[in-house]
Write a structure and sequence with these properties.
The complex is a heterodimer.
Chain A lengths: L2 E6 L2 E2 L5 E8 L7 E7 L6 E7 L4 E3 L7 E6 L4 E6 L8 E11 L2 E7 L3 E5 L2
Parallel strand pairs in A: 2-11
Antiparallel strand pairs in A: 1-3, 3-8, 4-5, 4-9, 5-6, 7-8, 9-10, 9-11
Chain B lengths: L8 E4 L5 E6 L10 E6 L6 E4 L13 E6 L2 E6 L8 E9 L4 E4 L3 E5 L1
Parallel strand pairs in B: 1-9
Antiparallel strand pairs in B: 2-6, 3-4, 3-7, 5-6, 7-8, 7-9
The chains are: A mainly beta, B mainly beta.
Chain lengths: 120, 110
Amino acid sequence: QVQLQQWGAGLLKPSETLSLTCALYGGSFSGYDWSWIRQPPGKGLEWIGKINHSGSTNYNPSLKSRVTISVDTSRNQFSLNLNSVTAADTAVYYCARQNYFSSTSCFDYWGQGTLVTVSS
Amino acid sequence: QSVLTQPPSASGTPGQRVTISCSGSSSNIGSNTVNWYQQLPGTAPKLLIYSNNQRPSGVPDRFSGSKSGTSASLAISGLQSEDEADYYCAAGDDSLKGVVFGGGTKLTVL
């Protein structure tokens, strides 16, 4: 049974760096992409970026200058760093597995979510 | 605002059929498949429909999806109280080289 479990600091001050880690249990890391997605309180979902098992990344252009996603295949973990946070980065952050079928893909497994609040 | 456009709310009574629309452009829905996610209050989104009209194992056949051109729809028949949730459409975007979501539709079962 595939499970994604995530953790990280939930309260940050403006200008600090957000750091979250997501661990995969019960599945293989290779053959999939691994994404971070966020949801501001009461709002919709925003894709942040993704990484594959070999470390190749792709980021949302709106966040690209502040985002780094990395992978540790030995631990089946991937991480998100978002620097210079502001109140606008307050959101629930989710990790998710991106699965591919023929020419399509979808997020078929999600982490439980981590609420990150940015406040002075 | 979100790249894909959904109505903010929808409603229906138990047993009714409701549809939720999702509108995009040639760079996303027009050239990629559409997925739908259901988010119950306080939980992570769950994959409901993938590749326009495919249901993952365990999703009731009351849920169906369709796509035409740059728009897609989610239909829920035989509405039940447990269907009350937020629904999001999503698609790959060739310009973004990533995934875009709709703003979400809050479904209320009256």
